[in-house]
Amino acid sequence: MSLIVFVSVYAIGDPVEILVSPQATIKEIEQTRVALGLDQPLWWQYLLFLGHALQGDLGRSFIFHQPALSLVFSRFGATLELALSALLLSTMLGIALGLVAALRVGDWVGRTIMAASIAGLSLPTFWVGTLLVMFFGIWLGWLPAIGRGEVATFLGITSSLFTRDGLAHVILPASTLALGNTALIIRLTRSGAVEALQSDYVRFARAKGLSPTRIVGVHVLKSVLIPLTTIVGLEFGGLVAFSVVTETIYAWPGMGKLIVDSIAVLDRPVIVAYLMMVALLFVVINLVVDLLYRALDPRVGPHT
Amino acid sequence: MLSRRDTLLLAAAILAPLPVAAQAARRLRMGVALAPNSIDPHYHNTGQNNSALRHVFDTLCNEMGLEEVEPCLAESWKMLDATTWQFDLRKGVTFTDGTPFTADDVIFTFERVPTVPNSPGLYTPFVKPVVKLQAKDPHTLIMTTAAPYPTLPREVAWVQILSRKIHTGATTDDFNSLKVAIGTGPYKITKYVPGDEVQFVRNDAYWGRKQPWETVQLKAVANDSTRLGALLAGDLDLMFRVGTPDLPRVQNDPKVEVSLSPSLEIVYLFPDSTRDVSPNMTDKAGKPLEKNPLRDVRVRRALSMSIDRQAIVDRVMQKAGAPANQIAAPTMEGFNKSLPPIPYDPVAARKLLAEAGYPDGWKMKINGPVGFIANDDKILQAVGSFFSRVGVETEVESVSPAVYFGKATAREYCVFMTSYTGPVAIGDLKALIVTKDPKTGDGPFNRHLYSNKQLDDLVYQAQATLDPVERVRLTGEAMKVGMDDAALIPLVQTMGSVATRKGVVKYNSVPIGWGWAMLAEPLS
């Protein structure tokens, strides 16, 4: 993968052309090329990179002169907290609304929820984001329009979710990011629950006189959760990796904003470090999803 | 275990509003498109770094983009002979850790500039003219240049001064971690998040005017509309660069004050007048042209005359610009005031094309960047349609700057558009149309390798002329030679825009476009 990034960045253009100042003379431009190691042939640059990477060094950013990996990592927290808030919001809201829609199939409540979920799936993030900023940030002035709030450290974790100011800042971007997912989860939950409600075991449970709350909250929900876990897991990876648009609209100092800025100036070490990190993240998420599967569904396991 | 009461108290503590800073503590929140990429003032010469770091570090003189530079750490300067300068330094200035500022610190700074490793753009062009530095006494500095260098104060104005005592051996990382981010400037830096934000607090021991702001936040918001949204929502007090589509609306907003001011940026077209065959040009049937029409000066002039610059300013740029007739802004030293505006005359343009042997024109593709200059893609489209109207069927292609500049330098385009921003006219000439020569280092952005002996001679003569009036005359003369030959086709001068919260902040723009808290005044 690093090879693909190397070759494609090389094919796109020359970072030096973008970096040099207008007052630079030819000599400075050459010096810059040498300083960044871009005067070497591509294959040699790549071998050098591989050699360093094996020692855990992904190189230094052309722009910030900081180790690329630690630069990406320093932005990871902000993105993670945005993605987690969005995930929490979308699963809670999505499952609740999805169950309601399943129980009220056919009447106006069910139909309204389903119509809203279609809108949620089809509205583009940048549009919803801008609209939310206009409405809550500018007209009503209730919530801050940009940036991340104050951070606090709690149990060794530094996050803006621990301060009131930070929470106020995260609401709009998290809602924007959660929108598509919420809609998806509503639809999945509803179809899963509708199917489960008609299954034999639910009918037996009803016949045995179990309370409706217990039937829906335990038996139906459990069977719905299995397919949901896969989707939510994959979507979580997506939230982290592709929060680019949301982070740009809200000037949220996360990885997405960093990668957009880095691509614009062809900051190759950062692009490579970011992609490797995201790849690793997807591997970890898939592992967690598989483990969760076992916990939720006893049929999945070494003995089957 | 927490008791119920404890839990309630805890919840109340979390939900209670944080103590709001007393109103007396004035803070300024500025929104910029780009944040600095380092705190080391000699690491990367870019507009955003120079703007941001000057809050912390001072220079010998202040470059504002006007005809003269202003004193800063140097109170005055004079030429002792053609190659020797004396700078009288301000007394009683200290770095924020208490270290006094002396002439030796300037010497140290000039030694450090060329040695910063891994720099994507060194500050060496500004120290290179100086071959010897000498401290006559702690507050008198003698600089010697290899050749007469009348614009020396303008060059040293870009070099931010560090201290020998504090900064010996300091690396770029040491600055970025704020360990040695210590200067003599009006503010001290308290927080730096790469590519995102910088925070400053007032330096109460500053030698100059006491600053009205106690804290300053510089926040990068790349998207123009988001930045404006943040200002409207009250999350910013002032922001630079209002997006053109938003201009008419914001100008009518009662809560916001927008000010436009001419910048030093000139947008121009660079036609390939040097190769016999140039890419992207065909006859009307689609067969590549064997002869490059742009080699003929009549053709280049005809293309220039076919452009209605005023229309581009009025419609595409929403009046945030002005037609340009040369590669320099009117406020700059060396601007040729006697050059007439380039007329918009499609009839004469067609006649010139016919005279040059192209009565039916030809087909070509011209190129430009997207998002490098405000409205660059739309300006290029307008240019293309003006060319088409005089018979040169023009297709336009705009690509991301990341791709664009490499290709422009590789000469894959026959005509390309870009802009240049420089404080003096002679600098624009030396960067763009003086013969590209690795020996002199001049012509770094002369991408079509234009070369004109008469122009070169005038530029180098001007550069060595001590008398300012004569120097300006010679520079203007060189500009005229270049423009008469249509070596470049100037299009428009852009304007900088600043939006502030009305009644809260006033911003005093300077042509060079600094984004400084020092130029912002509280109104309430």
Structure description:
The complex is a heterodimer of chains A (304) and B (524). Chain A has 13 helices and two strands, in the order H-H-H-H-H-H-H-E-E-H-H-H-H-H-H. With 304 residues, chain A is an all-alpha fold. In chain A, helix 12 (255-264) runs antiparallel to helix 13. Chain A has a two-stranded antiparallel ribbon with strand order 1-2. Chain A is elongated, with a radius of gyration of 24 Å. Chain B has 17 helices and 20 strands. Chain B has helices spanning 4-15, 47-53, 103-112, 124-127, 152-156, 164-167, 172-176, 224-232, 247-251, 297-305, 309-316, 346-355, 376-389, 401-409, 425-432, 453-463, 468-484; strands spanning 27-32, 61-62, 70-71, 74-81, 84-89, 130-137, 140-145, 187-193, 197-202, 215-220, 238-240, 256-271, 281-282, 321-323, 363-369, 393-399, 415-421, 489-501, 505-507, 520-522. In chain B, the strands form five sheets. In chain B, strands 1, 8, 9, 10, 11, 12, 14, 17 and 18 form a nine-stranded mixed β-sheet that branches. In chain B, strand 6 and strand 7 form a beta hairpin. In chain B, helix 10 (297-305) runs antiparallel to helix 12 and helix 16 packs antiparallel against helix 17. Chain B is globular, with a radius of gyration of 26 Å. The model of chain B is unreliable at 1-5 and 7-23 (pLDDT under 50). At the A-B interface, helix 2, helix 3, helix 7 and helix 12 of A face helix 4, helix 7, helix 8 and helix 14 of B.
Share of helix among residues of chain B?
A: 25-40%
- CATH class category name of the domain at 264-495 in chain B: Alpha Beta
Number of helices of chain A: 13
Distance between the termini of chain B: 51 Å
Over all CA atoms, what is the radius of gyration of chain B?
Answer: 26 Å
Number of helices of chain B: 17
- Gyration radius of chain A (Cα, Å) is 24 Å
By CATH, the superfamily of the domain at 264-495 in chain B comes out as Dipeptide-binding Protein, Domain 3
Gross morphology of chain A:
elongated
Fraction of residues in H or I helices of chain A: over 70%
Assembly state? heterodimer
Helices and strands of chain A, in N-to-C order? HHHHHHHEEHHHHHH
